[in-house]
Amino acid sequence: MRAPKPFATETDLCAAFLAAVPDTWTAWKEHAGWDILLVRKADGFQIGIEAKLKCNATVLQQALEEYGTIGVASEGPDCRAILVPESEGTLKPLADYLGITVIQMRVRDRWSGPLFLPSLPEEPDQYSNHLWHEWLPTKRHALLEYLPHVPAGAPAPLQLTWWKIQAMKLVILATTRGYVTREDFKHLRIDHRMWVGANGWLRPTERKGWYFAEGTPPFALKEQHPRVYAEIEADADKWMPKVAT
User: Fold this and answer.
1) Which of 22, 30, 152, 186 is the most buried (most CB within 10 A)?
2) Residue-wise pLDDT tens digits, 114-137
3) What does the alpha-carbon distance between residue 225 and residue 167 come to, in Å, rounded to a whole number?
4) Which of 39, 54, 56, 74 is nearest to 9 (CA)?
5) Is the dihedral of CA 16, 114, 107, 91 positive or negative?
């Protein structure tokens, strides 16, 4: 009889790992092409992590820079890693050779010590921790204005993007004021043609701007990202144009 899997899905594996990550790090889930992008609060140091239930060549390839994008101007994390269950460490020598750290995750019920190894590098360890390989990117991954609150490691990940954030601002602005103008699109740096052109998401109103054709936004952004939507709504005084011109 086969032993039960320590983690049923990659989402479960990521959730267990994130629950054990020290609060000195911020987890950006499904960001910049990574299942998890860890950012050290003290200095912005980044670790890009791909999660898999099996440690194989595929996940190693996913953790490497994409072919054709390697260059001095390429964005990337300071370290690259793969997250796997404790038993999946056979390719660790190859991963080390490639400059990728293998993070092995234990099941809490079976272990009283650290739940994952190696431990995350802290500031004094930079450039001297042999378990973490410094890639020294020219530019780290850009971070969003709001932290994604989505599951990490899902087969079809729900991602929060810059465009979604700006679109939610436009939706909130339109529903608050009752219309939006060209100046609002310029203020939010969104191309108005996608909204008022062939898609017909917005229609002219009796006022001086546009409003949603059917009275409701064409996207399920509030349903997809309810927490971020609420945060953007709460920050309206910071980003919303004071007066439409």
Assistant:
1) 152
2) 899 999 998 766 556 688 999 999
3) 12
4) 54
5) positive
